[in-house]
Structures are given as C-alpha cells and as structure tokens.
Amino acid sequence: MRVLIYGAGQLAQMMYLAGCPLGIEVQAVDVKDDSVVHPVSKLPLELNLTQAIEAADALSVEFEHVPERLLEQAAASDKLLPSMSNILIGADRVREKKLLESLNVPNCAHRLVTDLTQLDECVESLGERLIIKASRDGYDGYGQWRLTDRSKLDALKQSLQGLDLDAVPLIVEQMVDFDRELSMVGVRDKQGNISTYPLAENLHYKGQLHVSVAPAPEVDTELQKRAAHIFETLASGMDYVGVLAVEMFQCGDTLLVNELAPRVHNSGHWTQSGSVTDQFENHLRAVCGLPLGDVAAIGVSAMVNIIGCGSFSRELLSIKGSHLHWYGKTVREKRKMGHINVGAADYAELGDKLAALSQYLPLEFFPKLEKEARRLRNA
Amino acid sequence: MRVLIYGAGQLAQMMYLAGCPLGIEVQAVDVKDDSVVHPVSKLPLELNLTQAIEAADALSVEFEHVPERLLEQAAASDKLLPSMSNILIGADRVREKKLLESLNVPNCAHRLVTDLTQLDECVESLGERLIIKASRDGYDGYGQWRLTDRSKLDALKQSLQGLDLDAVPLIVEQMVDFDRELSMVGVRDKQGNISTYPLAENLHYKGQLHVSVAPAPEVDTELQKRAAHIFETLASGMDYVGVLAVEMFQCGDTLLVNELAPRVHNSGHWTQSGSVTDQFENHLRAVCGLPLGDVAAIGVSAMVNIIGCGSFSRELLSIKGSHLHWYGKTVREKRKMGHINVGAADYAELGDKLAALSQYLPLEFFPKLEKEARRLRNA
To answer: With an 8 Å Cβ cutoff, is B83 touching chain A?
Structure first.
C-alpha cells in the first residue's frame, strides 16, 4: 500500500518509519514546489504529484496549513483522509470555534473580530484579560497577542493596525486561569471505531511545546472519561478518519477545548515507546482501512523536545528507557530539531531520569526540564 | 553518522528503520554485485562501495556468509564491527567449535570429519545418533544430514559422496535429547559493557525458526544467569562488538551452545515491541560507540515468522498488541516474508492471542502456531 503525505517534515518521516513494517510505503509532498520526495532523505522520487496521487491508496497531511489548491486536488481523488473540511478546521480558528459551538463542546469564551473597534466590546463582555489570535497561519505562538490590562488596549490596537482582518479575522478569547494544559490524541477509523490514548500533560514555553508527560499525572478515571467523551463527540461529529489531537485546558473539574490538530501531533510523540501502538502507526492503520492498534500506555513517559539546539551529548542514551528521535534538519532558532522519549515505571523514577537527562543537555534550550524533574520526583 | 551493512535483506532494512531516529543513516551492500543500495527500496545509491566505506563511521553485516574478499576490504578500513574473525566464526563451524572449546563453553560432543571413512570412528565414539553438518554455507537446515541408526551409515556415506571435504569439512555432532532450544541475544559495546536480553524459546520446523517466545517460559533466575554467563564468556573472549545471538540446547539444568550468529538474529525480533530497546537499535548503538539501551522485556511476547506465505488477512492486526513486520520481498517457498510480533501481559493471554492469530492465517504455513497457543494457554 502507498500513502501520500502533504508535508515533508518530521511527522511525514515518522509516518514513513511506522509504515514500512506494515508494508505501507509513505511518500511526501514538499508543498513548496509540489515535488514528491522521500520522507527521510527528502530527495525527489521519480514521479510527479499527479502520478503520486494516482498511485496512492490514501492521501493525508502532516500539517493543516497545506495550500488550499493542493487540498482541493487531493480531495478530488476521493482518497484524502481526514477530509479537506476537517483539515481546514485545524487551519482556521473561525471554523474550529464554529465546530466546537455546533457540537456543544466546552471551550473558552470568545468573539470573532473583523474590525479593531470590536475589541472594545470584547473587553466589555470578556474582561480585560484576553488572548487575541489570528484565525489562520498561527503556529507555535506566532500570530498571538495578549491583553492583560484595559489601559493597554490602545497600544494593542496600534500593533494590530497592519492586519487585514477581512482576509484573516481575529479570534479574541477570554484568558482562562487554567490549572494545566492536557491533550488527548486519539484515532478514528473508517467504520467509526475510536481509540484514545491516555491524556498527556503539556508544558509550553514561549508558545512552544517543550515537555509532555503521559499518562498525565493526577488524572482519575472520571477525567480521562470526560476527555474521551469530548474526543468522541468531536471525531464522530466531524466524521473524522485518522489521528486527531485535541488540546484542552483543565480548570478544576472542567475541560475546555483550546485547539484541534487534524493530524499526528507533537504531544503524541511519547506513544513511540510509551504505548503499545504509536500514533504514527495508528494514523496509517486508520487511513489504510486496517484495524486500529492498542493505545494502552506502557509505564509512564516524558517527551522532551529539542528546540533550536543542535549539539548535545549522545551519552544521554545511557539513561535507561531513553530514546532519541532526531529529525536531521539544519539548526535554526526555535526550530524543532528532534525529541527525546523517556520511559519509566512510575513518576518518581521518571523524575529521576529527567534530572539525569538535564545533566546531558544545554539547559538554556530546555527551560522546563529541571523543574519538571523536581515536580515528578515529588509526585 | 553512517553505518554500512553488508547484505541488503530484512535485517539491514530493520537496522535502517532503527537507525533513522538516532540520526544514523544505514546503507546496505548488495553482495551479489557490490552495489550500495537503500536498505528499504533496494534502489542503488549514488556512490560506489569504496566511497561508501570511506563515508561510513562503521561497517557491519546482516549475515555471516559475506564473501571473504568483501570482508577483507571492509576489515582494511578498520571500521568493521564485529571483526572479520568474529564474523567468520559464525560462518564456519570448524572455527566456531574451536572457539567454544578454547573458552570451555559446553557444547555438543562432536568430531571434525575431512574424510568419510572417519564417520565410522564417529559412530564408535559418539554413538549412532548423529547430526552431520557442512562446516560452511549451511543455513535454515540446508547442509545438514542425520544418522539415526548405525545400519544406515553406508547410505549416508553414499549421499555425502559428492562433497569436497578438503574445502568444506563436516562437523559431526552427537544428537542430543534436549528439552528445548533457547537463544540468548545480547550486545557488547566497545568498552566491553554487555547487556543480554531475556532468553527466548525457539520452535523450529524443518530446520527453520517458526516461533519464538520471550522471555522463555519456565526460566528461573539461575538458568537466565547461566545463559548470561555463557554469553559473556563468548562475547568477551571474542572481544566482540555489536549484537551476538547464541543458540543453546537446554537439557535439564544444562545448557549446550549449538550455534553462534554474529549479528542481529531472527530469535531477537520479538525485542521490537517486547523490550525497551530492540536488538537493531542496540546493534547500531554498539557499533557507533553510543551507550547501550535497556534490554528489559515488556510483558511477554511471541514472534511468529511468515514463511513462504504471501497472502493472509490484515485483520490479524485487530489482535491487541500485534505488530506486522513485512519485508516486501517476492514470495518463494521457505522464504521468510515477514514476521508478526504479539505482546501480552502473561503467557495465558499470549496463548489466547496466538489462538486468535491462527484464525487469520493459512495454517499450512504456520505448523507450530496452534500447538504453541494451546501450550501457552495451559502454562
């Protein structure tokens, strides 16, 4: 079988590696020039996009910001999974919020803003602590602004002055004092069967995911069930096929959906060694019509992103249960270069291992690591 | 980093897949024409063997029957691991037996035969139940003969008449009434650190491995220790670097070494989902000078070879904890086409899963499966 993935980054690469044992050949589309490339070497394959679409059993994406003309061509083949409209929900916060509202899924109070004068009404109705998000093309904290105090509203308007809000409206959200961010990665197959991984707890720094711990500590059966219910509502409501990631804020007993990603997700990378079947394999199984794999966790895991950092000691592999996933990219500031998965029997051991890991890494690139190690050791 | 593997079959392919996340690029040598190929696609890469040797950080093998001229060229680079002499030990039963004797490692009573008349003396000293093995180029039961009864000695001699025993002597072994075959797969790094996986129990049919169960049932700490001691004696005695597989016969409390394989081994495929770090990754870690990974088992596992069979229901993936590893080769009789790993919490559950698996497979190709399922269910 063949699966063509739009996008030729690390997610396509990891799908390639997961597909190989199943006899599924994953090819990637470099959306910069529509070329079809090998997902690992990135070298062009000897076929063009039309031929690759023709030869594929399924088409899918590694990111939601695929140009619409490409998605339209893909959708026309009737092989695109998840569907174009589902992919666009992940790419457009207006569509996303509409979906959440239509399915009655709890999310942060928000307003759609197409004119900066509407910001005053936002402050009136949502309060003075707001997060303003471009509805499209935002990523890893880009395209986001904050208002923390009514007195700074004019300055905010100034900084937003250049935006074309007709083309890309803003979503203005009430800032929520959440306890933590959790994410649920799950998978739905063509028959509508759904499997959800245990919740992961995500630690961000400057808008980027730095560490995930899964299963998230202090999640009781009730909370896991509630998250799974939200996932099922969304995935079934969307008639979704493949892996879907749902980011949520936990506020006490309440879960508010923050964001959807219609694809394999960074907060699911822990599944590579921390679960029976990883998210990459399960995505391929789903889009190829194969039975879904077991999503049970194996012990507890942490996933540590390597961001903007190209040099560190490989001796970190001496930590038992540590696995390096290196993407083979050129180093750039804030660029995700790879990740490290660490598995342990319990949280205290996981904390010890993260503490050990911090000895091998240049900590300026890993601002969340030591504190998380301490937290887990005391858990 | 780059590792060049001599041999371009499934073992090179699985090393490629294990190397990718570590940032290790595995290339393969097709020893039929000395071409350097991609281990998955088997397509030629744009460099010749000399260039590939030059570019590699380490050279290694996926099978021991690499032509000696290639091994000599590889050894001359000072990058070949394990060493040429260690590879040849796996390729030549005369060298193998000499090693076992020199290290005082228990093995089956045997004689070296360079002339068929010596067979009479073999029967005198070893008894009338013998296994006769070509000292080189034997594989999966090829190049082996049996004597079960003194009266058939003349007929045996007749059938061996055509062999050139000066070029390829015979090793004649006393047939041992062993309880079962176990194998220990382990790894030794450049500093001499050794890690050994739990013993696997291997079920053969007509000279080919069909099923491995690991950790092998009914292995107490004492037996596991004894096997590890044998492994350490061999690996240290050989100054071995990389993954080494040691096949042993268990006779009561005694372990007799039957065969060494200087490479990743079919009886270690269960480690892909049944251990913290699989044998392919550990081999690469060792030859690249990286710290060895944890070899602890995760639950219990069975590895079921798919031999000579190209068609079966992919619905077998609905069995929880099942993973397909398909090699992408053309079907031929007795050819290893792939394998299925199945993980479970305990042997009884593993038995249930193998029983379920047998429903999805054409059983004429899987003669060991149903019986093993029953045995494990009752374990």
So the answer is: no
Q: Which of A142, A305, A351 is nearest to A210 (CA)?
A: A305
Same domain for B170 and B239: no
| A7 annotated among ligand-binding-site residues | no
Separation of alpha carbons A239 and A219, rounded Å: 28
Q: Specify the pLDDT at position B142.
A: 74
Residues A58 and A187 in one domain: no
Among the partner-chain residues B22, B292, B293, the one whose CB lies closest to the CB of A326 is B22
Cβ-Cβ contacts under 8 Å, B278 against chain A: none
Question: A328, A357 in Cβ contact below 8 A?
Answer: no
B95, part of any domain: no
Q: Which residues of B touch A298 (CB under 8 A)?
A: 298
B159 and B241 together in one domain: no
Residue B373 placed within a domain: yes
Do A155 and A190 sit in the same domain of this protein? Answer: no
CB contact under 8 A, A298 and B298: yes
Task: Indicate if A169 and A303 belong to the same structural domain.
Answer: no
* pLDDT tens column, A270-300: 999 999 999 999 999 999 999 999 999 999 9
On whether residue A193 sits in a domain, the answer given is yes
Per-residue model confidence as pLDDT tens digits over B206-235: 989 999 999 999 999 999 999 999 999 999
B133 annotated ligand-binding residue? yes
The predicted model gives A334-342 an average pLDDT of 97
Q: Does A46 touch chain B (CB under 8 A)?
A: no
- Which of B40, B321, B326 minimises the CB distance to A22? B326
CB–CB contact B290 A314 (8 Å)? yes
Please calculate the CA angle B16-B182-B319 and round it to the nearest 5 degrees: 60
DSSP codes, A336-379? EEEEEEEEESSHHHHHHHHHHHHTTS-GGG-TTHHHHHHHHHT-
CB contact under 8 A, A317 and B291: yes
Tell me how many domains chain A contains: 3
Contact B25, B2 (CB under 8 A): yes
A202 is in an annotated binding site: no
Same domain flag for A237 and A158? no
A331 touches chain B (CB under 8 A): no
CB B123 within 8 A of CB B147: yes
Q: Do B285 and A325 touch (CB under 8 A)?
A: no
CA B368 – CA B206 distance, rounded (Å): 11
- How much is the ipTM here? 0.95
Among residues A304, A291, A306, which one has the least CA distance to residue A355? A304
Cα distances from A323 to residues B209, B281, B284, B285, in angstroms, run 30, 10, 13, 11
Which residue range forms the structural domain that includes residue A116?
Answer: 109-174
Dump pLDDT digits (tens) for B305-351. 999 999 999 999 999 999 999 999 999 999 999 999 999 999 999 99
